[in-house]
Amino acid sequence: MNKETPLTLLDKPNSYVGRTLSRDSAKRAVAGRGRYTDDIMPARTLHAAFVRSPYGHAKILSIDVEAAKQQQGVALVMTGAELAEMCTGPWVGTLVCFDGMKSEPQHPMAVDRACWQGEPVVMVVANSRAEAEDAAELVTVGYEELPVVIDKETALDKDSPVIHPNLGDNLAFEKTIETGDVEKAVSEADIVIEDTFTFGRHTAVSLEPRALLAEYDPGTERLTIHTSSQCPHMIQAVFARTLGVPEHNVRIVAPDVGGSFGLKIHTFGDEIAATAAAIKLARPVKFIADRLESFATDIHARENRVKGRIAVTKEGIITSVDIDVRSGAGAYSQYPRTSVFEANQILNITGGPYAHENYRASTQVVYLNKVPTSQYRAVGHPIGNTVGESLVDQAAAACGIDPMEFRRRNVMRDDSYPRVSAAGIEMRDLSHQKCLETLVERMGYDALLEEQAEYRKKGIQRGIGIAAFIKGTAPGPAGYYGAGGAPISSQDSCTIKLEPSGGVICMVGVTDQGQGVDTVMGQIAAATLGVPMESVRVIEGDTDAVPYGGGTYASRATAIGGEATYQAAMLLRAEILEIAGVLLQAEPDTLDILDGHVVDKGDTASRISLAEIGRIGHFQVAELPNHIQHTLSATYRFRLKDALYIFTNGIQGAYVEVDTDTGFIKLLNHWVIEDCGRVINPQLADEQVRGGCVQGLGGALYEECVYDSAGQLQNATLADYLVPMAGEMPDIEVAHIQTHTGVSELGAKGVGESGTGAAPAVVMNAVNDAIRPFGGKVTAQPMSPETILKALGKV
Amino acid sequence: MNEATLEISLTVNGEQITKTVPVRQHLVDFLRNELGFTGSHLGCEHGVCGACSVRVDDAVVRGCLMLAVQADGANVVTVEGLTETGEIADLQKNFVERNAMQCGYCTPGMLITAAELLHDPKPVSREEIRGHLSGNFCRCTGYHAIVDAVETTINKRLEEG
Question: ipTM surpassing 0.95, yes or no?
Answer without folding.
Answer: yes
